[in-house]
């Protein structure tokens, strides 16, 4: 009987665009099944949830009123099992669900939905200029890419004038705290200003997972550099009804520090 593969080692080191994309494609392909088992009930099959706090687009209307989505072409980036796209389709929109991970999109196929699924890198979107009215990304792509401006420019390219891109990411302040849901996660343990990526490496030193940190100011500058106009930044508060834990997210931490940042961007 073969020995199980050793657990990856966590470190902080540089990781470029190519290494980050390769590592994260592999990680999501390997972990998609476990992710959907663990979080599928919370996410639902056809809900549009912006993050672990449970903020729902039905209430938030960050893409606009639900009744205005009918007939809109919408690109979901980092769609996973396409739960958000399924909700958009139910509002009469025409979504396209894009993800780097083939295995995640197989889960989208398993659940079903009459809209296109596209396996591609967010830094090289396979669509013509001005193909979409709206774009959205709930924790998709942006936390995992080495060059967020490249992704933002690609999104702006495929949006029509007057379009909107809304994306959620880990709130930058969380990088200063340990990724723990309990009291041990309430003490600052790292510099907020340290942008060195979090990287998990295998026994040969090859990256198998990469996550990139940007400060709040970095995110704002990236949005401006890509040619977007920043309309709003939402920081969801932890709701009373949500008693679940998700990684480092928890009611304890969520009542004290923000866990998610949502950026609303306009393409003028």
UniProtKB/TrEMBL annotation:
Q: Which GO terms describe its biological process?
A: methylation
Q: Which domain of life is it from?
A: Bacteria
Q: Which Pfam families match?
A: Methyltransf_11
User: Positions of the region Disordered?
Assistant: 1-24
InterPro entries in the record: Methyltransf_11, SAM-dependent_MTases_sf
Which first-to-last residue range defines the signal peptide?
none
Work out whether the entry's keyword set contains Transmembrane.
no
Question: Per UniProt, what is one GO molecular function of this protein?
Answer: S-adenosylmethionine-dependent methyltransferase activity
Domain (Methyltransferase type) spans: 75-167
Protein name as annotated:
SAM-dependent methyltransferase
Organism of origin is: Streptomyces griseoruber
């Amino acid at each position: 009987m073969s020995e199980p593969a050793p657990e990856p080692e966590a470190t902080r080191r540089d990781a470029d665009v190519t290494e980050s994309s390769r590592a994260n494609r592999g990680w999501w392909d390997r972990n998609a099944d476990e992710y959907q088992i663990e979080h599928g009930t919370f996410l639902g099959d056809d809900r549009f949830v912006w993050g672990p706090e449970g903020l729902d687009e039905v209430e938030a209307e960050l893409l606009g009123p639900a009744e205005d989505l009918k007939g809109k072409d919408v690109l979901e980036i980092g769609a996973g099992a396409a739960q958000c796209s399924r909700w958009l389709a139910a509002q009469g929109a025409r979504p396209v669900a894009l993800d780097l991970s083939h295995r995640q999109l197989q889960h989208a196929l398993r659940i079903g939905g009459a809209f296109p699924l596209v396996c591609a890198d967010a830094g090289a979107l396979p669509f013509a200029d001005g193909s979409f009215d709206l774009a959205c990304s709930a924790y998709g792509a942006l936390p995992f890419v080495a060059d967020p401006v490249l992704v933002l420019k690609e999104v702006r390219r495929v949006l029509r004038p007057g379009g909107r891109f809304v994306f959620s990411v880990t709130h930058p302040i969380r990088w200063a705290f340990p990724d723990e849901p309990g009291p041990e996660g309430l003490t600052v343990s790292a510099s907020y200003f340290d942008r060195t990526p979090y990287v998990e490496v295998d026994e040969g030193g090859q990256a198998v997972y990469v996550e990139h940190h940007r400060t709040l100011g970095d995110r704002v500058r990236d949005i401006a550099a890509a040619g977007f106009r920043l309309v709003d930044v939402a920081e969801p508060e932890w709701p009373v009804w949500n008693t679940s834990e998700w990684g480092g997210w928890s009611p304890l931490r969520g009542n004290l520090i923000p866990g998610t940042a949502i950026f609303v961007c306009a393409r003028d």
